[in-house]
Amino acid sequence: MSLSSCDPPHHPSLPAAIAAGEAVAARAGRGLSSVATSAAEHAAGLSTEQVEALRYSIWEDIASEYDARFLGAWLDGLDIEFSASFRSAAEVWERDELGHHACSKAVWVAAFGGERDLDQRLAERKPNFAPLTPFFTDEFTILCLLAYDELATVRAYRANLPLYAHLGGPFRRLMRRIMADEARHYASFLSVAQSEYPGRAADAPGVISRLRAAGVPYAATFVLDHDDPVFTSELLDETARTLRARFVE
Ligand SMILES: [Fe+2]
Ligand SMILES: [Fe+2]
């Protein structure tokens, strides 16, 4: 799952992160620096409450998108022979998530400053996958986990769009683009699950129910990062219902 020929897998360099962020911004029709400049202009006119709400949610985005590298490394360390379609979907996924991380971080730094503090908080992150091991048993179960997580993220980003809009139209459009990427990740993991494991559709509802019930405190694992209150019970119920229906339709 290497990000470029010069970067070791899961340890992307700063230039690789910037390039991935620019690729996401370009898909939204902007340069990342122009989105950041616009966000800084809008931030100057916000109330303390608006700034607090934005800092909370964008930090959650920066951190969980950053954690994709830990999940990539964890997947590589599993004793599972992944299919070629899984590896291809995961490679695109990891590069996109790095880009999302770089976009959210660039906007945060432009709007609120404190890059050194942010980098320090990120460098201190340590994942703990132990409570999630029942979901890393085989490729099909992992695909259910990833599809569930990506679909929940699409919905959370959508629910946060009015908040993101406080930082200007360009940032809101960038977040809509990121939402579209998450929807593409969801579709690709679901598609691999269905095409590689046609005989396991009947197992999906049980896996999805266990995912919905997991309630594991988030520990830098990328998946199941549902600490932001935007992940309401209704949002997660609806996510589980939608995904279940895709396997039984
Ligand atoms: Fe993402
Ligand atoms: Fe994603």
Low-confidence stretches: none
Instruction: State the name of the first-level CATH class.
Output: Mainly Alpha
The percent of residues in helical segments reads: 55-70%
The CATH topology is given as Ribonucleotide Reductase, subunit A
Mean pLDDT, all residues: 94
CATH architecture: Orthogonal Bundle
- The N- to C-terminal Cα distance equals 32 Å
Rounded to an integer in angstroms, the radius of gyration calculated over CA atoms is 18 Å
**Number of structural domains:** 1
Small-molecule components bound: fe (ii) ion
Q: How many helices?
A: 10
Q: What structural class do helix, strand and pairing data support?
A: mainly alpha
In brief:
This protein is mainly α. The protein has ten helices and no strands.
Polypeptide structure, described:
This protein is mostly helical and 249 residues long. The chain has a single domain (14-248), classed as Ribonucleotide Reductase, subunit A (Orthogonal Bundle). It has helices at residues 14-27, 32-43, 48-66, 68-77, 84-112, 115-123, 139-164, 169-196, 204-213, 233-248. Helix 1 crosses helix 5 (84-112), helix 2 (32-43) crosses helix 5 (84-112) and helix 3 packs antiparallel against helix 5 (84-112). The mean pLDDT is 94. The structure holds fe (ii) ion (FE2) (2 copies). Residues 65, 97, 100, 178, 182 line the site of one fe (ii) ion.
